[in-house]
Amino acid sequence: MTEYAWDHLIQEGRVHRSLYTDEGVFALEMTRVFGHVWTYLGHETEIPNPNDFKLTKLGLRPVILTRDAKGELHALFNRCMHRGVTICAEHAGNAKRFVCPYHGWAYGNTGKLIGVPHSEGYGEAFEMGAFDLKRVPRVASYRGFVFGTLSETMPSIEDHLGGARAALDAFIDRAPVGQLIVRAGAYRGAFNGNWKLVWDNAADGYHVQFAHKSLVDMTNKRYAQGRGADYMASPDNSPIYAEVFERGHTFLHHRPGMGPSLWERARPTPGGEAYAAQLADRRGDAEARAALEGAPGFGMNLNIFPNLLIIANQIQVVEPLAVNRTQLTWYATHLAGAEPEVNVLRMRIAEDFPNFGEVDDMEMFERCQEGLAVPEAEWVDCSRGLYAANGADDAARKVRPTDEATMRNYFRAYKMLMQSGGAYACS
Amino acid sequence: MPARDTVLAPPSASTYVNDALYARVMEELRWAAEAPPANAAATLRRTIEGFLHYEARLLDQGQFEAWANLFAPECIYWAPANPAADVRNNVAIFFDDRRRLDDRVTRLLSSYAHNQAPRPRLRHLISNIEIWPIENGARVLSSQIVHQHRSGRHSVVYVSGVGHTLRKTDEGWRIELKRITLVNFDEALEPPTLL
User: Closest partner residue to A268 among B22, B99, B110, by Cβ?
Assistant: First the structure.
């Protein structure tokens, strides 16, 4: 396998185009990043009952995330140990066993091989136990968010989340009983570009007024001041900020610039007035106003390396498909214990950004991929704000929202992973 | 084209998207599983076909404001992400009321809608039309193929079953509900311009 000159390819302030275009780099990422690092696999509320399952992926590996009869979680490779067939084709469901359609090998939802038709053909020495499904060895849930890693040496999920944990907690604690319910379907988009283009963008307060100008202009044209992201017109002069954390996580915090009410700030929503009125009728004005604050986006981009992005009021999962192809899946969320009106409005708010904002981001990603085909222009620049950092980039710190410290930060974690051959150098 | 058709009305409060509306919308899916009456009058069929073709042509010609104005003041433009689920409690690919539909058209027509430059060329093909007469209108099912091509880019084909609830008004036929169920509703999509 080719080894790469990572110190050359990933420098402070610039990274090499081949990281986005080279199939060999992508193949290594699918083990050294997706596989080694705690990778988001799904949410416990997607499989709430004993014997529930859903299909997911760890990098390019097809995985069945199961809850067994006792309630334990398993992440099993969706791959028959006989000839390699994917044993499950349903996206989700309830099943105690998975039977391979090819030759009838049957597995329990713990991964245990429980039946081989005509097994006498393998002789007496055949050991069923040697053919249990391969699995993601470590699976952990953080407040319902389920992650998996192939590494025995990764620190705990809590340690991996590190500084990003507080913001994730805040997102979950919007729910009156402190739990999200992820059972409201998903919006799925795909683009012809590398998965890291999403990361370059994920905490980027610099692009909004340009890439999203069509959305900004529409909002300004049709609605009174104070709706949408008008504070992004001059982000460095607003109170919003970005923050970087160890292990690649980044955070763009919009709320300081959004004023006292997220609901008043949100772009108008289908049914907004109807459900606000219904809620006020049932609960009175003050309680209704407070409850409605749970509906809109939470004013943050929280990006948990490598594939979990919390944006607006939903969970965006980054799924690499090929070096130049990526899927983005936006899972809508309900707040457990919230007023039903609030959870209805959350659905319509969840449809806003994918339709009105992400379309332009994905266009930028595809055009990055096209432009990065130029071999003679080797470098992607991410030096903005570096002059002021004085080497402080290495510690968790707050930076201006347009600062590319967020991009440098995830590339620092990425480089460590790629360089170490997957062994996570935890501090 | 009269000026009225090419200017969007200012946004108005979304007061009609309530539990009753969601119940009506879900009812449309149940109705769409039934057989239409055999005797829809030939004149109604010709009228409906003409209207669907006209709607498609406005989209194919890029006359998005005139297209949006074919919708009733209290309308829904909807592409389910899961047609088996209640859209009241499930996210859709989109579920636009009048106001968000006009937001959508306004954004699409902005010079800065980067995925609209160069403007994708659309072509709607409509077939398999079935009609259920209702009071002062019709419910219509059709199969549609939308071919979307952007010069220098890949083409995308969207195949769907479409349900229209249409109402005859003093100003002509208006769309109360347009539901587009893509055959690949559960797969990743290239964002459609308008379906």
Answer: B99
